[in-house]
Amino acid sequence: MMDDASKSLVSHKIKTADEIAKLIGARPRAKKVVMCHGTFDIVHPGHVRHLLYAKSKGDLLVASLTADAHIAKANFRPFVPQELRAFNLAALEVVDFVVIDHLPTPIENIKVIKPDYFAKGYEYVKGGLPPRTADEKTAVESYGGEILFTPGDIVYSSSHIIETEPPAIATEKLLSLLQAEKLSFDSLKEAAGKLKDIRVHVIGDTIVDSYTHTVLIGGMTKTPTMSVRFENRKDFVGGAGIVAKHLRAAGAKVTYSTVLGNDKLAEFALDDLKEAGVECVPIIDPTRPTTNKNAIIAGGYNLLKVDTLDNRSISERVVETLKSQVEETPADIVVFSDFRHGMFNRDTIPGLTAAIPKDAFRVADSQVASRWGNILEFQGFDLITPNEREARFALGDQDSVVRPLGLELYKQAHCKTLILKLGERGLMTFRSIPEEEQDVRAFFAVDTFAERIVDAVGSGDALLAYAALSLFSTGSSVIASVLGSLAAAVECEHEGNVPVRPKDVIDKLERFERFANYA
To answer: How high is the pLDDT of residue 512?
Structure first.
C-alpha cells in the first residue's frame, strides 16, 4: 500500500523533465543515460525485461510515462492513475528517475533530458517503423543520441491483462487520489457527518418499484407460457422519490414536488414519503396513473417487467404549479430528477430551470437512455450525474472511449462538475479547475466499492444524493465522488430501494480503510 512511509522511500525518484536534466547534466556525460517511455498501466514481466535491457545499455535509467489525459487507446484507460503508475515504476530498483509526461508525445521531454539512448520495445519496429517512433528517432538523433530496440522474444499487453481480469486495486487507487488531493479517510468521515439540515428541493418523477416473487411450477406444452405460483409482492418508492428519501436519510431537510395519479399507489407513495420524513407537495393528476414498474421474479431471476405508466407531457397548468413551487420553496440545493415520465421535456425544462432561485446549488440527473430525452437539456448546472449509456445517447456517440466521451459531454453541458457513472467500473469525474490550481487534475476515476451486488437498480440515486450534499457542503468533487460511490455500493447490496444512512456509508468506508491499513 502507498502509505506516507512507503511513498517517502521512492518519491525522490519522481521528477520533472527539467529537474532530471539538471541532475544528470549536459552531454557528453560521464554516465550514460537511457530513457524509456510508455503507458505502464500495469507493470508486467514484459515491462521488467524491457527496463532491465535498457538499463544494461547505460548507467542511469529514466522511465517516462504518459499522463492520464493523453491515454485513449482503449476504454476505461488508464486502469491505474498516473501517480500510482509513477510510484510503481519508482519502486523498481532498476529505475533511477520517473517523469510523468503531460504532453501527447515524449518529443519535448526527449529534447529537454537529451538521453544518450532512447529505448523502444520490439513491437514498435516489427513490420516497419511507425510514424510516431520515426519522430522520436529524429528528435533523439538531432542532438547525437541513439534509438535502440529491446528484444521482442516475449510480448505482453497491459490492456489484455486488464480486460481478462482487472486487478483489484480500488483501495490503492483511492489512497493515491486522496494523497494527491491532500485528503484522508478522516476527511471523508468528517464530510459524511456534515450533511445535516441542508435544505433540498427535489423535483421529479415518482416511480413505485414492485418486486413480485413467484415460484416456477412448469410450462405449457402447446404455448411458450411459463407457469408460476405467486408468493409475495414488495413495493418500494423509487425514481425521484428514493432520491428524496436518500437525501432525508443523510440528514437533509427535503421538500419533494412530484406528479401522482389518483390511485392507491399514490396513497402508498405519500404515506411512505411521510414516514421517511420527506415533505411532499404532490400534484394529483387524475388523468394519469402513478408510474409503477413491476418485476416478476422466479428463483432469483427476473422473468418479466410490467410497466404501468403514461409518458405524455404534463399539462400547462401543472407546469405553472411546479414553477411556482420551485420559485417559492426555500432551498440550498435544487435537484431535478428526470426519469422522462412526463414532467421533464424540451418544453418544460427551460421554464423550470429559470424558476430555480438564483443562489441555489443546481443538480440534475436524467435517466433517459431507453427513452427520448437528453441530459444536455440541463445546461449550466453545478452537478450532473449521467451514466455512460446516457452520455452516448446525448452525444450520439457509440465509438469514443470513456474519457474523451465524458470530456465532450462536460464541455457541451457547461456544468461545473460531471460525475460519469460507469457501473461495475465505478465512475469518472470531470471538474472545472481555477487558473491558479493548474496542477490539480481536471478529471479522475473512482473504482466501485460494491462487494456483493444484490440489486444494482437505484444505486445511481444514492450516488446522486450523497454526491450533491457533499459537493455543496465541502466544495470538493473528490469527496463528493467517493461518498457518492460508497453510497451507491451500499444500495447495490440490498434488494429494492432502501434509503442509505451516513452510518452505512461510514461503515463501508471504514472497511476499505482497514484494507488500506492492513500492514
So the answer is: 87
What pLDDT, in 10s, does the model give residues 104-138?
A: 899 999 999 999 999 987 655 555 567 888 889 99
State the pairing for strand pair 117-120/146-149.
parallel
- Report residue 462 as a C-alpha cell: 444514492
Q: How far is CA 257 from the centre of its chain?
A: 28
Three-state DSSP class for residue 11:
helix
Check pLDDT > 70 for residue 168.
no
What CATH superfamily is the domain 180-516? Ribokinase (3.40.1190.20)
Helix (H) or strand (E) holding 361: strand 361-366
Flag the least confident range among 81-85, 182-186, 503-507. Answer: 81-85
Helix 477-492 vs helix 502-516: crossing angle, to nearest 10? 100
Helices and strands, number each (H, E), in the chain: 18, 18
Beginning with the edge strand found earlier in the chain, give each strand of the sheet holding 146-149 in spatial order: 97-101, 60-66, 33-38, 117-120, 146-149
> N- to C-terminal Cα distance for the chain?
8
**For residue 182, with 0-12 CB atoms within 10 Å meaning exposed, 13-18 middle and 19 or more buried, which class applies?**
exposed
Helix (H) or strand (E) holding 296: strand 292-298
Residues 487, 192 contacting (CB under 8 angstroms): no
Look at residue 232 and give its three-state secondary structure. Answer: strand
- Long-range contact pairs involving 65-69 (C-beta distance under 8 Å, separation at least 24): 65/37, 65/38, 65/39, 65/40, 65/89, 65/98, 65/99, 65/100, 65/101, 66/37, 66/38, 66/39, 66/101, 67/100, 67/101, 67/102, 68/403, 68/441, 68/443, 69/102, 69/403, 69/442, 69/443
Of 33-37, 484-488, 513-517, minimum mean pLDDT range = 513-517
Please give the CATH architecture assigned to the domain spanning 4-165: 3-Layer(aba) Sandwich (3.40)
d(C-alpha 8, C-alpha 445), whole Å? 24
123 alpha carbon, distance to own chain's centre = 33
Q: Would you say 249 and 221 are in contact if contact means Cβ atoms under 8 Å apart?
A: no
For the stretch 479-491, pLDDT in tens is: 999 999 999 999 9
Cα(33)–Cα(183) distance, rounded to whole angstroms? Answer: 37
| Domain ranges, ordered by start, for the chain | 4-165, 180-516
* Separation of alpha carbons 59 and 228, rounded Å: 74
Q: Is the pLDDT of residue 75 over 80?
A: no
Query: % helix / strand / coil in the chain, to the nearest 5?
Result: 40, 25, 35
CB-CB neighbours of 449 under 10 Å? 22
Are 446 and 429 within 8 A, CB to CB?
yes
Q: What is the DSSP string of 83-101?
A: HHHHHHHHTSTT--EEEEE
Query: Which residue from 100, 35, 26, 33 is spatially nearest to 66, judged by alpha carbons?
Result: 100
The pTM score is 0.77
Average pLDDT over residues 378-399: 93
Query: What are the angstrom distances between the C-alpha of 482 and each of 355, 389, 479, 486?
Result: 31, 21, 5, 6
Q: What are the distances in angstroms from CA 61 to CA 8, 58, 93, 111?
A: 20, 7, 10, 16
